[in-house]
Amino acid sequence: MSKADAFIQAGKTAVLQNIQGTLQFLQRFPPFNQMEHAHLAYLVEQCQLRFYGQGESIIKPADGPVEHFYIVKQGRVVGERPHTAKGGTETTFEITTGECFPLAALLGERATRTEHLAGEDTFCLQLNKLAFIKLFALSGTFRDFALRGVSSLLDQVNQQVQQKAVETLGTQYSLNTRLGELAMRHPVTCSPATPLREAVKLMHEQQVGSIVAVDEHKAPLGIFTLRDLRHVVAEGVGDFSEPLERHMTHSPFYLSPDHSAFDAAIAMTERHIAHVCLVKDQRLCGVVSERDLFSLQRVDLVHLARTIRSAQRVEQLVNLRGEIGQLVERMLAHGASSTQITHIITLLNDHTVCRVIELTLAEKGDPGVPFSWLCFGSEGRREQTLHTDQDNGILFDARDAAHAAEIRGKLLPIAQQINHSLALCGFTLCKGNIMAGNPQLCLSRAEWARRFAAFIREATPENLLGSSIYFDLRVVWGDEQSCEQLRRGILDQVGDNRLFQRMMAENALRNRPPVGRFREFVLARKNGEKATLDLKTQGLTPFVDGARLLALANGIDANNTLERFRQLVDKEVIERLDGAAYEEAYHFIQQTRMQQHQIQTRENLPYSNRVDPDSLNHLDRRILRESLRQAQRLQSSLTLRYQL
Amino acid sequence: MSLFSWLRPAGPALSSEQQQRLANLPAIPELSECSLREQRWVVLDLETTGLNLNKDRVLSIGAVVIEDGAIDFSQQFERTLQCRELKLSPSVLLHGLGPSAIAAGSEPAEALLDFMEFVGDSPVLAFHAPFDQHMLGRALKEHLGYKLQQVFLDVADIAPLVCPQAHIREAGLDDWIDWFRLEVFERHNASADALATAELALILFSKARGQQIHSPLNLQQRLSQWKRRQQAPSF
User: Model confidence over B49-102: pLDDT tens digits?
Assistant: First the structure.
């Protein structure tokens, strides 16, 4: 930059100083940090900055339809609603620096239902409705946030997750590698005037997927890739003596050799390109291709699955468990969602179970009776994490009670052996003895059917608990038809039994999500230990229970919680927006839980579902709070539906 | 008249268009009885070559507007004035004042006219307002042959008036910012100082209303009473 240019630059930024300052302030907070600069600048330029002394009303229901959008710049805004039961008012929410309001009222073109007051001396940026609408139209990020609220921030959390995973993986697998180290080969270059034919010939000789046109100083002018070649051929240009510059991509995207492989991967994904030029001091010094990045990723799911299926001894399977753990970590690093990961864990666990059964049968000899290996609970719902209990059983066909007892006698020793081997492979033995080796869980179809019917008919607490485990059944190994018939039976009976549904609904309200009125979590404090919340029982269980009830009551045969929500939406049992919100919330809590497990594994701590919210960063904490609120909403919708 | 005045090109030679604009500037009314919120205010901060009232010159003007009781981000003013005596050097960059001529290209007469049009007939708020008033007045006279008539109120006086419990002696802008725990952005130039002063003013107006000061005129009267009290010898 010349001196004159520097002055011009400084002059421009100086002129925009106040706008710039506000921009920088907003860029500390989502969703503003995700918005395009121009859109954010528009927002700021249209803003007014307003001061409210403590206790001053900002907007209230009597003001009529909301005319402004507010962002708290400094201070605290509290929501106060008249208290229906006790009279007076109650604080329903608090909004602090960087947060905004009142989106729902603004979008619904109505008055706010809650009076917003300054909880302390507060400055708010105020955007008028017209500018809000314009911004809403301009910025996809902003629109997304306005419509979906905090849940739209999840993408950002996912990025954080990736980042963290990358940090802990070490350089061997990580995308942290400097691009300079990655691009070992000399880039293939030519002048822009080179005939197309010659350029392609060069690429062919050098066995590369791209060629870069450079000027006499080696500055990149354009890039031509195999994909471009495909275009040229497909368009039937046919004249390969034309200069390369007519077909290349001009001013190609570039990074410096000091950028990381992660940067390149992000750039490729964002820009839909497969090659990134590396430029140092305005000279081309390398090209990194998509393939270079993926060769880093030594994750091979298919390979792992195949190894499990061909393991010759149980000990081999035990060793492979460690690899599943590493796989999960790498998957997180490569941006997999918690749903993808739980699916993959379930898949690999299924393979392990199948292989254990096959090995056991080979060792003990085939009993000569066909049977199906069932799983229940989270395994049945395909929602397993790495740390999982055994919840399994056996289903077989028998002519009558005597025949069933005879078969059971043959299968039980095998089942116990399988339970034992699975325990070696890391599937903890079930404390409640819900295992196939237990005579009560090695049943014929008629016996299972009778048992399930009893659950539905006599809704005792034990039976309700039983239904919440067994009704998520699924076949892991063996014939699936008998299980299908069992499931149909359950659906028919539950669908007809309103009383049972009501009991299940009550049961689904047992686990209350720990969010209180004052923005904070309601935390259990055990024997002076730090206050924590249980992500599984207080976070996930409300969703799982709610989805199960609604699915069973509406004849939906899916087991997976998210799949249940999707089908409930399709059947119009729940609103599409609600379904999406539940899905995201569930997803986030699960993701947080898995991260906790990863950290615990790394630090050799016993695994636990309890988390201290203070250990989460600001964004995670805020989203966790919102996610738990969704669980609360689901529960109150059940209260309404079943008039509890 | 300066001895060297003959060295400069003769006086403020204004174009006819500039003269027209000057003629169109509004007359300045007395402060009114309207509410503090209804009054449009211009909050000003000047950057000068130094603190000498007679020798130093205005380098840049930063101003924001308080209208309808809020700082309106769509009305902001920032100009750096061309200044022949000032050498363009990298050290100037530190103050953010160097790029004047090239970036904004502001001929002082043009910049000052723009500013006076921006101000209109609104009263002006500034921290240590007499300084800004004097410096701006001198610049207007020199470059436009124009007399500054706007009412200036000093935020440095309003603050202790409405906030007597503060007991900060000789408080500067930074002291008041700390006192009110105002979170301001980084301040490097006139414009950012003007914004900080305006934010302070919003708080002070809110306090003033609490003390039954409702109109700009009211505020002006209370200020002069307060100042008389301050200057009166205390026996």
Answer: 778 888 888 888 999 999 999 999 989 998 888 765 555 444 344 444 544 443
Mutation to test the B interface, candidates A27, A49, A134, most B Cβ within 10 Å: A49
State the pLDDT confidence band at B213, using cuts at 50, 70 and 90.
very high
Scanning the structure block, which residue is given the tokens 């934010």? B199
Mark whether A403 and A355 lie in a shared domain.
yes
Min Cα distance A129 → chain B (Å) is: 15
Q: Give the integer Cα–Cα distance in Å for A116 and A128.
A: 17
Query: Is the Cβ pair A10, B183 closer than 8 Å?
Result: no
Would you list which residues of chain B are within 8 Å, Cβ to Cβ, of chain A?
62, 64, 68-74, 76, 78, 80, 88, 90, 93, 96-100, 102-104, 180-183, 185-186, 188-189, 191-192, 194-195, 198-199, 202-203, 205-207, 210
Interface check A3 vs B, CB under 8 A: yes
Chain A hits for B88, CB-CB cut-off 8 Å, are: 7
Domain that holds residue A460: 301-496
Taking the C-alpha atoms of residue A42 and residue A35, their distance in angstroms, rounded to an integer, is 11
In chain B, the residue whose alpha carbon lies closest to the alpha carbon of A23 is B185
Chain B residues with CB under 8 Å of A75 CB are none
According to DSSP, the β-strands at A275-280 and A210-214 are unpaired
Reply yes or no on whether the pLDDT at A517 is more than 60: no
A213 and A277 assigned to the same domain: yes
Q: Which of A17, A53, A123 sits opposite B191 (nearest CB)?
A: A17
Domain boundaries, position B60: 39-230
Judgement on whether residues A492 and A567 belong to the same structural domain of the protein: no
Q: pLDDT band for position A172 (50/70/90)? A: very low
Q: Is A279 helix (H, G, I), strand (E, B) or coil?
A: strand
* Domain assignment of residue B132, yes or no: yes
Query: How many structural domains is chain B composed of?
Result: 1
Residues in A 126-145 with any Cβ partner in B closer than 8 A: 126
Kindly give, in sequence order, each residue whose CB lies less than 8 Å from that of residue A433, ignoring residues fewer than 6 positions away. Answer: none
Give the span between the Cα atoms of A298 and A322, in whole angstroms. 15
E-only strand ranges, A53-121: 57-59, 68-74, 76-82, 89-96, 100-101, 115-118
A283-289 vs B124-126, strand pairing mode: unpaired
Which pLDDT belongs to residue A11?
Answer: 41
A334 pLDDT exceeds 70?
no
CA distance B41 to chain A (A): 14
Which tokens sit at A555? Answer: 């004849």
A18 chain-B contacts, CB cut-off 8 A: 64, 73, 76, 78, 185, 191-192, 194-195
pTM over 0.90: no
Q: Measured in whole angstroms, how far is the alpha carbon of residue A115 from the centre of its chain?
A: 35
- Say if residue B235's pLDDT is above 70: no
CATH of the domain at B62: 3.30.420.10
Strands of the sheet containing A220-225, edge to edge, are A189-190, A210-214, A220-225, A249-250
Residue A79 pLDDT greater than 70, yes or no = yes
Range in A64-78, A135-149, A515-529 with the lowest mean pLDDT: A515-529
Q: Which of A18-27, A331-340, B65-74 has the highest mean pLDDT?
A: B65-74
Residue A8 — very low, low, confident or very high, per pLDDT cuts 50/70/90? Answer: very low
Q: Does residue B15 belong to any structural domain of this protein?
A: no
Question: What CATH number is given to the structural domain containing A114?
Answer: 2.60.120.10
Round to whole Å and give the CA distance between A570 and A121: 48
Nearest in space to A212 (alpha carbons), one of A266, A269, A278, A264: A278
Domain count, chain A: 4
Closest Cβ opposite residue B206 in set A14, A44, A53: A53
pLDDT tens digits for range A449-495? 999 999 999 878 888 888 989 999 999 999 999 999 999 999 999 99
